[in-house]
Write a structure and sequence with these properties.
This protein is α+β, with helices and mostly antiparallel strands. It has 13 helices and six strands. The strands form two sheets. It has a four-stranded antiparallel β-sheet with strand order 2-3-5-6, with no helix packed on it. The chain has a two-stranded parallel sheet with strand order 1-4.
């Protein structure tokens, strides 16, 4: 009795792990799950793999690399694109949907299972020793093309899911590449704004010296000071804009907005830029990459398979095929009797008399024709879009080239003449500011034209599908 009591006392402790493992799941609302995911994402960031410096790339140990956290990490555009795709929750969700659609393709490739039939058995016949049992195996054959049509439609759904994921990947890559270009452009604009601010501040200092020497008026000094303040304000605005763009770029790739990163890309002011590929190469690359084309092609295959299945419905086909055996006292295997003669066969054939499926066949044919025309429309639309973006990029490139050849020498000459005149003190501040303002307008106009060209190239990348092909380049205009 005492042992029984001890076992009874130990029973709750023994059942506790099992009960804990079988506890019902927690029911959380969508908002609670979302908040939990967001808080989890607020953990340590910036532990992603990016290249730091040459010593790390040559094989410096991880401990030595970790001690140089203050050093800026060198980030290329390819690194940024890879990290942005890796850390995109939207892309991961779309890729999971594509995986589900791929599994549904295998699920669609199936045939109907046979049916085992046993007729009603009477107990009195078993008791009297004369059982009569009939067993049969019934098949329902699929019509020709039905399974292939289901598989083709599942593949079309898979192509659409994969195309959505591909479209998101293209968007991510295009956005990241544009942010990279934007940072480089802003750096060039900051350099120009810094040079302008220094020139204006130097002019303001000269005006103070000339006012002290009674060689200029207080109005001249005020105008020079206002011009310097305005230039410094423009510089601060460009620097703030760069922090915003860089913060967005770092957020897209999964780094902290304040992370120390050195963005390394193509210098925007280096001219001429690399030649763009030919129109034919760009269009063919777009037709290979654009998800809309893949979707249209998959829909053609699905419509073709469905049209074949619908045409097959116009002909007679088996509704079922049944093979059985009838067990009776006369067919039981007893000595001296014939066996194997109680096999039965049945079949049902559907006759397309009242419904010849003419409407279904016509509808499937129309769907096939529509899908083919949809692909032709996509090809035309993609080609037109690529040509338009290429024309815009070519026009912007020619504008920059022409402006550089005409305006830059004049601006440089105006800056040198104004500087010499101010040093010789044979020009007033109004004329100096006027010449300087014209020079600044030329520099800002050049940067605006370069930004227009880089924007056009970014839109061309989007039209092609994320990046430009590296082969079959044209000659530079």
């Amino acid at each position: 009795m005492a042992a029984l009591k001890r076992y009874a006392a130990l029973l709750p402790a023994a059942l506790l792990p099992a009960l804990a493992g079988c506890s019902p799941p927690l029911h959380l609302s969508g908002s609670e799950r979302a908040i939990a995911m967001y808080r989890e994402s607020l953990g340590p960031r910036g532990a992603l793999t990016v290249r730091r410096d040459e010593s790390v790339r040559r094989g410096t140990s991880a401990r030595a690399a970790s001690t140089s956290d203050a050093a800026p990490r060198v980030l290329t555009v390819e690194d940024a694109v890879a990290l942005a795709k890796k850390n995109s929750a939207q892309l991961a969700a779309l890729e999971a949907s594509a995986t589900t659609a791929e599994a549904e393709v295998a699920a669609a490739d199936k045939h109907k299972n046979p049916e085992l039939r046993i007729t009603q058995m009477r107990l009195d016949q078993f008791v009297e020793g004369e059982p009569r049992i009939r067993t049969a195996l019934r098949f329902s054959p699929d019509r020709p093309g039905e399974v292939d049509a289901d598989v083709a439609e599942a593949r079309a759904a898979k192509a659409e899911a994969q195309a959505e994921a591909q479209a998101e990947a293209i968007t991510i890559e295009a956005d990241v590449r544009w942010l990279f270009d934007d940072v480089a452009l802003i750096d060039a604009e900051i350099a120009a704004a810094h040079a302008i601010a220094e020139a204006r501040r130097s002019l303001a200092s000269q005006m103070k010296t000339r006012v002290a020497a009674a060689e200029a008026t207080s109005i001249d000094e005020t105008l020079a000071e206002l011009a310097a303040v305005e230039a410094e304000s423009d510089l601060a605005e460009q620097q703030a804009h760069r922090r915003e763009v860089l913060g967005e770029l770092l957020d897209r790739i999964g780094l902290e907005p304040g992370a120390s990163v050195e963005v390394v890309g193509e210098p925007p002011l280096a001219w001429p830029p690399p030649a763009l590929p030919s129109e034919q190469a760009l269009i063919e690359e777009a037709l290979r990459r654009r998800p809309e084309v893949a979707i249209a092609g998959a829909r053609i295959d699905a419509a073709d398979a469905r049209a074949y299945a619908e045409r097959a419905r116009r002909f007679p086909w088996f509704s079922f095929v049944e093979l059985g055996y009838q067990f009776t006292p006369g067919t039981l295997p007893t000595p001296g009797t014939l066996t194997g003669l109680a096999w039965t066969f049945q079949a049902g054939v559907e006759l397309p008399i009242f419904d010849t499926n003419r409407a279904g066949t016509a509808a499937a044919g129309a769907a096939k024709n529509s899908s083919q025309r949809a692909l032709a429309a996509e090809v035309e639309r993609v080609a037109r879009e690529v040509r338009a973006r290429l024309r815009e990029a070519d026009a912007s490139r020619e504008l920059v080239t022409a402006f550089r050849s005409r305006a830059l020498p004049a601006a440089a000459q105006a800056g040198s003449a104004s500087k010499r005149a101010l040093e010789a003190r044979n020009v007033d501040v109004i004329e100096a500011l006027s010449v300087d303002a014209q020079r600044v307008k030329v520099e800002l106009r050049l940067l605006a034209l370069i930004r227009r060209y880089r924007t056009a190239v970014s839109e061309l990348r989007r039209a092609v599908g994320g990046r430009l092909p590296a082969s079959v380049s044209r000659s530079t205009p």
